[in-house]
Write a structure and sequence with these properties.
binds zinc ion, 4-stranded antiparallel beta sheet, alpha/beta, 7-stranded mixed beta sheet, Gyrase A, domain 2
Length: 415
């Protein structure tokens, strides 16, 4: 070997040694007690407003959990929708800090892209931090988009569109997609049960020390179709999910004894809607029919060309059912954390009872929507149960962005 090759080889060996030492040090640095051995399950009731919890029947497990102590309403982000809601929950950062600004964003090539990859999140997630500290991690979701946004690099990622062999062997497949419209509500209740069954199987397999994120799509999908609680269908869906969560709590007790916690919250709420706002017609009348736009229930994001900006803003401000229109330089942008370069230059927000929708005909089977700043869209439940619940210090949480820090405390990795 030449001296240069020896020098390079020495650097490589030294680097490997440092990496090995760092890896060996992770479990010891993982927090108090036994060092990151707490099992924590985060359950996201997709599209469940806080007010729904109190309106459930007294025997519903989710209502009982809330009544037994650790429950408080917290505020989620704007827009109050799935990708932004989940990214805020898992990063502890607002959309303008984590880069997940809504349902879609404009890519460099001028087309719209979905938030469907962990690479689009511009802040560390609690899932990554838990894995670094030695916890086993899982993201199990009724929605493929949530799995693809949060599930890269975890020990188990599962959703109806990606079912690992291990899940097929331990739990079986999710309900068949072809049967979805035979009985819409029962199908989603079955899907939520499958998600929780997979979570239980993972908890058993992982043993003490795991972080599981479980997204239940049922409350959202049934809520969109039939409206939020007290709609009987959505109420039934949450009662059904509660039964499955009760069984999961029993599994946690069996596996983790007194060292576990279950956190139940939501990415956003749901509001009863009866009226449609038709963006295509509004933009056409403003001479901006070819503008790129994205609909997210109570929110419409528009990327107008510079020459149509004023016309688009004026048309939206004058449209029936539009509560607020935020333009490129408006002060409101700071208030709603929409200052990221991915946030649309024009953001329109619907009034109570209205939603943005492609066609009025869709309202025949749409009774629920979300996305706005209304309390029914942004105030969501936060429930913590299990033997470690006190460590969560739930009284300090005001926003869903406070939940990542709370989960870190529960896992013993807050430093
Ligand atoms: Zn959602």
């Amino acid at each position: 070997m030449t001296p240069e090759k020896i020098r390079r080889a020495s650097i490589v060996i030294l680097a490997l040694l440092v990496c090995a030492l760092a890896a060996a040090a992770v479990p010891a640095a993982a927090g108090p007690g036994q060092g990151g051995r707490t099992t924590v399950v985060l359950v996201v009731l997709d599209g469940c407003p806080a007010r729904s919890v109190d309106a459930l029947p007294p025997e519903a497990y989710i209502r009982q959990l809330a009544a037994e102590g650790c429950f408080r309403p917290v505020r989620t982000v704007f827009p109050s929708s799935t990708a932004a809601g989940h990214a805020a929950l898992l990063t502890g950062r607002w959309p303008d800090e984590n880069g997940v600004t809504g349902k879609e964003f404009m890519r460099e090539d001028g087309t719209l892209g979905a938030f469907n990859s962990s690479r689009l999140i511009e802040a560390p997630t609690l899932i990554e931090r838990a894995a670094m500290a030695g916890s086993r991690t899982a993201v199990i979701s009724g929605k493929n988009g949530v799995r693809s946004l949060l599930g890269e690099g975890v020990d188990l990622a599962a959703s109806p569109g990606q079912v690992p062999q291990w899940v097929l062997e331990k739990v079986g497949p999710p309900p068949a997609e072809s049967a979805q419209y035979d009985d819409f509500c029962a199908w989603y209740e079955g899907l939520d049960r499958w998600v929780i069954d997979v979570a239980s199987a993972f908890v058993k397999d992982a043993g003490p020390g795991a972080l599981v994120v479980a997204n239940l799509a049922g409350p959202d999908k049934v809520g969109h179709r039939f409206g939020p609680v007290p709609a009987p269908e959505t109420t039934h869906c949450l009662v059904s999910a509660g039964k499955a969560l009760e069984a999961l709590a029993a599994v946690l007790e069996g596996v983790a004894g007194d060292d576990w916690a279950m956190v139940v919250t939501a990415d956003h709420g749901m509001t009863l809607v009866t009226r449609a706002i038709l963006p295509g017609e509004i933009l056409e009348a403003a001479g901006a029919g070819d503008c790129v736009f994205s609909l997210d229930g109570g929110v419409m994001c528009v990327w107008p060309t510079a020459d149509r900006l004023d016309a688009v803003m004026t048309a939206l401000r004058n449209a029936e059912g539009v509560a607020e229109v935020i333009g490129p330089g408006d002060a409101a942008r700071v208030r709603v954390h929409a200052t990221h370069r991915r946030s649309a230059p024009v953001i329109a927000i619907a009034s109570a009872g209205y939603m943005f929708i492609e066609s009025a005909a869709f309202m025949d089977y749409t009774k629920g929507s979300h996305g706005t700043l209304l309390d029914s869209d942004v105030v969501v439940p936060l429930i913590v149960c299990g033997p470690r619940a006190a460590r969560a210090d739930i009284a300090t949480a005001r926003y869903t962005v406070d939940i990542a820090g709370m989960l870190a405390r529960l896992l013993g990795i807050e430093k």
